[in-house]
Design goal:
The protein is built from 2 helices and no strands. It is mainly α. The protein has a domain at 22-70.
């Protein structure tokens, strides 16, 4: 029979996951919005510019994850403490 984790572990893990997920969702939204504005506004954007904006969002997300690792958070791409 499999041993289930304690209730305390499940709640702590769920809380950590929720905080990490919320941070990533908000950061990605802001990164994509900034990328979209930077690319499409001055260039009277098209589909290709929008695709470029997505690439900028992805690059910013990668840089954020790397910055988190360099900031002593070695097992997570999150900037939240304790994740």
């Amino acid at each position: 029979m499999a041993a289930f984790p304690s209730t305390n572990t499940v709640v702590k893990t769920a809380g950590t996951y929720a905080r990490d997920l919320l941070e990533r969702v908000l950061a990605t939204f802001l990164q994509a919005a900034i990328g979209g504005i930077v690319i499409t506004q001055p260039l009277n954007g098209s589909m290709w510019y929008a695709a470029g904006a997505g690439g900028i969002g992805a690059a910013l997300s990668l840089l954020k994850g790397l910055a988190a690792r360099w900031r002593d958070v070695t097992n997570s791409a999150s900037l939240a403490k304790g994740v």
